[in-house]
Structures are given as C-alpha cells and as structure tokens.
Prior knowledge:
GO terms for molecular function: oxidoreductase activity. InterPro entries: Amino_oxidase, FAD/NAD-bd_sf. This is Phytoene desaturase (Lycopene-forming). The protein has helices at 12-22, 70-78, 108-118, 123-135, 148-152, 159-171, 182-195, 204-217, 260-266, 359-363, 367-386, 404-411, 446-461; strands spanning 2-8, 28-31, 42-46, 49-53, 88-89, 93-96, 101-104, 198-199, 221-223, 228-234, 237-243, 248-256, 285-293, 306-310, 328-332, 350-357, 396-402, 435-437. By secondary structure, it is α/β, with parallel strands linked by helices. The strands form 4 sheets. Strands 1, 2, 9, 10, 11, 12 and 18 form a 7-stranded mixed beta sheet that branches. It has a 7-stranded mixed beta sheet with strand order 7-6-14-15-16-13-17, sandwiched between helices. Helix 1 (12-22) links the parallel strand 1 (2-8) and strand 2. Helix 1 runs parallel beside helix 8 (204-217) and helix 2 (70-78) packs across helix 13.
Amino acid sequence: MKYDTIIIGAGLSGLAAGIRLAYYDQKVLILEKHTTIGGLNSFYRLRGRNYDVGLHAITNYAAPGTRTGPLAKLLKQLRLRWDDFNLTPQTGSAVVFPENRLNFNNDLQLLQQEINQQFPDQIDGFNRLTVQIEQFDDTNLNQPYLSARQIVQQYITDTTLEDMLFCPLMFYGSPTPHDMDFCQFVIMFKSIFLQGFARPPEGIRLILKNLVRKFKSLGGELKLRGGVAEILHHDGKACGVRLEDGTEHECDVLLSSAGSLETFRLTQPEGDQLSESEPQPGALSFIESIYALDKMPAELGIDETIIFYNNAPRFNYAPCDEPADLSSGIICSPNNFQYDDPSLVREGPTLRATVIASPAYWMNLSDDDYRAAKETWFPQIQEKVSEKLPPFADHIVDTDMFTPKTIWRFTGHVNGAVYGAPEKLRSGQTHLENLYICGTDQGFLGIIGSMLSGISIANLYVLSRM
C-alpha cells in the first residue's frame, strides 16, 4: 500500500507526529513491532497489579490554561485539552549527597533558597547561570556542541553543588558519561528546575490512550506486530518499508523513532558488513526495582516525589564495570503528587528505584544466569535504597525488576540505552533523502520533549512542503 508518511514506532514521538500529520489529511501509517504502544513509556499488568514502564514523572509541568512553554505548545499543536493529560504537580523532590541535601519543587524559589542556605557563596553564580539558561534557544536545531561542565563551571565554583545540579539532569536525560551537551543541559534544567514534575493519577496509560484515540479519529492507521525488517530506498531516497512478515508499504516520507543506529541498520541489506559510518550506540542503561506496598509511602514517612542520591565524594555518571553501580540512584513514588485522592493512583502504593547498570553483563546472560543475577542484585539495591528512606521492607507485597535487557526488548535500543546514541541528530536528517529521525536520538528529551520532537520533524519536513 502507498502512504504519504510511514512512522516507525508507536512511542510518544511517533504518535505525536502521526496526529500532527493526520490533521492535514495525510495518509499516515504508524508501525509498532510490539503488541502494545508506548515503547519504554508504556504500562503492563502483573499478578493483578498495574505498573507503568519508564514513567517516574512528566517534566515541563504548566498549570492548566498556561499559554506559553513546551506543554502549552504541545497541546496546541495536537489540539488536545489539558484534561487529556490530567497532570497533578509533585509534592517535592530532593538531591541528596553525603553532606548536603537540596530540596526542590515546581517553584524555582525553593531551590534558590536551599542553595543560598547551604552554598551562600554560590547563589549569585547560580542566578546568573539561570539567566543564561532562560535566554538560551534550545529549540534551535543548529546549536553547536558545547560542554555543559565548562559553561556551568564559569558560574559554579563549588564541585559539590556542580555535581548536585548535574545529578538529576543526567539521570533523566543524558546519553553521555560525565558531561552533557549544553543544549541538552538547558532542556533538562528548564524541564526539571524551572517547570517541574507532574503526573496523571491514571499514569502513562491515560496519555497514550488519548493520543491513539486522537490519531485514529483523524483517519490514521496503527499496526501492532508491525516490525520493520528493512527500510527500502532507491537512488539515495527512502521509498518504503518491508515488514518482518514480508509485507511491503510505499511512502513519500519516512519518520523513524527507532533510534539513529537502529534506523541506519534497517537501511543496510541483511548480510552486509557493518559500515564505518554508522552512528555510535549509547552505553548508559539502568536497572529499575519496583516495590508494591500495602500502605501509601506517605503513611510510612516517605513524602518525596523523587530522590536523586549519590553516596560518593563525586557524582560519577558513566557506564559501570560491575553489573550495577550502587553509589548513586533514583527513588520515586508515583503516589507522592498532589492528588485530591491518592487512592485513585492506578498503580497503587509503589516505590521505584533506579541505578546505572552494565549492558554488557545483563545482555549476555543465559536465561538461568539472568534469573540468578536478578535474585542476587535485587536485595543489594534494596539495601542501598533503604538507607535513604524510613523502613518499608515489611510492607512490600510484590516486586518486579527491569534490566538493560528488558529495556532493549521494549525499545530495540542497542545496549538497552535509555537515552539512545550520544550524538544527537538535531536536524532529524539522515543519510537518505525523505528519511528523518524523531524522538530520543533527535535530541528533545523527556515525555513532553519526545512528543515535541515528533511534531517538530513533522512540521519541518512534511507540512512545510505541502
């Protein structure tokens, strides 16, 4: 069949791009290789309990009716209502280091007060850094690479504060070790510290359901179990796809949210040697442990929405040699948002803990060794998490665990790299005409950013040419 646009991947970016194009009477097909939508930001049910995959919180929060900012732009572009996301702001989060703790929420003033109290000689520099961040155009697709560490160090001279600022931003959006592209740093700083966290009580399911509903209402087609085996091209131009079942579809434009390396490999005939020009894969992945509880976390004295912690003298964000790096991590509760009725949270009482993991270790285990490794590392991670929280072990009623191998299964990203390749294709352009990258490897980060990526690429390379 012939389509105006085919989109690979029914994650948030692909769905947003599909909606945007379908509004303008484009014949659009979204292909998803799995049996459900969402990629890493999806949902599942296990032993009678509901769980979200990937979602700790949605960044870029704005109150209903706000006219500016990423969330308002997204809703306007997709013609969605505020109620379609039903976001509730966080109660409050923290960055916890051995000698310091910085509390923050969706009001920058709290973080400024915390820095002023604990790092009084740094507050002026922090405020000047914030001004530069607010003035920086992170939507410019042609921004050159700049070291975020080097720029931040012009304003922040205390290494502990420097690491405490980088810790949440790296954990929630950096594909590179130790440093960040300053544009990526700005995107994450704005989304976490200037705008903040929120979440619907129904979890990611509500957002995905409304995106699919909107897409189909506009005539868009969604095919599950539609894995792409090859991207077809002729004379340097993408012209369609061949699916794993042998079916072929033609198109005028092809958008891929599969990742830059993964998309590149789909353009290479099976059996060909790997090209030296193919993108480098990401190497940063995570383990996530999930604890279902018999009481709300707040009833146990756990009030924070998210805790980013580091136990070492310096924060080391890098691939690890051990199966898991227990020196730092994230603890999140989907219950600790300002819900009118916390009992409506679809997941029930839950804690989630995330640490950096070694993809090479987890990806290469046999099934038996894989199960044994999970049984070995789950209690070690729980022990570290327990050091940061009031006692909760006696209230655990069920558990689950994700590894880089799980992430690879959900996303197809080589190495289970959550944030994709280290080098982003901000323009969205690839080595083939009419083939464009959207999503993680385009470079707009987070749930809102991912959807804006799909919209931006659709606007730039399809709608602007109609």
